[in-house]
Design goal:
By secondary structure, the chain is of the alpha+beta class. The chain has six helices and four strands. It is elongated, with a radius of gyration of 21 Å.
């Protein structure tokens, strides 16, 4: 009888350790991504990012934001070419995102809490990197297989960039999507 209690206790302890490791894995992966971004460790970033999935997500987010901006702009709405622009813009944006998303750009997103803007030329050596203290990080599960690190620049509290980590297997997590949350009215 004593041996059975020990086995049940060991099995229970093993289950608790497994559950804790399973639950904490995305936090460790997200922390690793943030540290790699701040250090500029491109190899580590490459290991922590699913670039094809991230590019697809970023295209969708930027396309939606671009179309919304175009719909709110009276010059585009009133123009006869506005519809053509709304049709062509996603194709142009898609090509730009394909070439734009690199480990350096991912690091910049994490450090500045800003999604890349394909219309703005990239600065290969930005000297005005935001102070890490200006970026607020909120961490949390969205579902069992999605974990979000929501970044907010204290200077722009209505604009948030959520980095979505997705589970690959039991303990492996990668950045696979972004969620742009803009509260500004233009």
């Amino acid at each position: 009888m004593g041996r059975k209690k020990i086995m049940v206790g060991l099995a229970g302890a093993a289950l608790v350790v497994f559950a804790a490791a399973w639950a904490i894995a995305p936090i460790l992966a997200a922390q690793s991504l943030v540290r790699a971004a701040k250090a500029g460790d491109e190899r580590r970033i490459e290991a922590l990012v699913d670039f094809p999935a991230l590019r697809t997500s970023l295209k969708e987010e930027l396309n939606a934001e671009l179309i919304e901006r175009m719909r709110r702009d009276p010059r585009v709405v009133e123009s006869g070419l506005g519809g053509l622009g709304m049709m062509l813009a996603p194709m142009l944006l898609s090509g730009a995102v394909e070439t734009l998303i690199t480990p350096e750009v991912v690091a910049d997103m994490v450090v500045t809490a800003e999604a890349p803007d394909p219309a703005r030329p990239s600065d290969p050596d930005p000297t005005d990197k935001r102070d890490a203290d200006d970026i607020h990080q909120a961490w949390g599960y969205r579902s069992l297989n999605e974990f979000a690190v929501t970044l907010t620049d204290r200077d722009r509290p209505d604009d948030r960039l959520a980095l979505i980590m997705v589970r690959y297997g039991l303990f492996d997590w990668k950045l696979a999507a972004v969620d742009l949350q803009s509260g500004r009215v233009e």
